Amino acid sequence: MQREYLDNCLKPIEGNSAEIQKKNQIRNTINNYFKHRDCHCLVRPVNDEKQLQKIEDVSLKDMKPMFL
């Protein structure tokens, strides 16, 4: 199921704008370089959204034990 989610996220999207072309180029690159992929769900390291946005500043002791 997770693999299907990843494969679906990597499908090209329709459109001709520069932004869409850039996104599709990234998707194609990932598909080409990583032929065999798998996807695993990770536990969020912290519950607080503001901490998550600045995760590089969060000390390990403040992260969820399950994440560590």
Keywords:
mainly alpha, single chain, 68 residues
Structure at a glance:
This protein is mainly α. The protein is built from three helices and no strands.
How many helical elements?
3
Oligomer: single chain
Overall mean pLDDT score?
A: 93
The number of domains is: 2
Range of helix content: 40-55%
The number of E-state strands comes to: 0
Low-confidence stretches: none
Order of helices and strands: HHH
Q: Taking Cα atoms only, what radius of gyration do you get, to the nearest Å?
A: 16 Å
**Secondary structure category:** mainly alpha
* Main pleated sheet: none
Kindly report how far apart the N and C termini lie: 24 Å
Query: Strand content of the residues, in percent?
Result: under 5%
Sum up the overall morphology in one term. Answer: elongated
Structural account:
It is elongated, with a radius of gyration of 16 Å. It has two domains: 1-37, no CATH class; 39-68, no CATH class. 43% of the residues lie in helices and 0% in strands. The protein has helices spanning 2-9, 18-33, 49-53. The protein is mostly helical and 68 residues long.
Topology, please?
Layout: H1 2-9, H2 18-33, H3 49-53
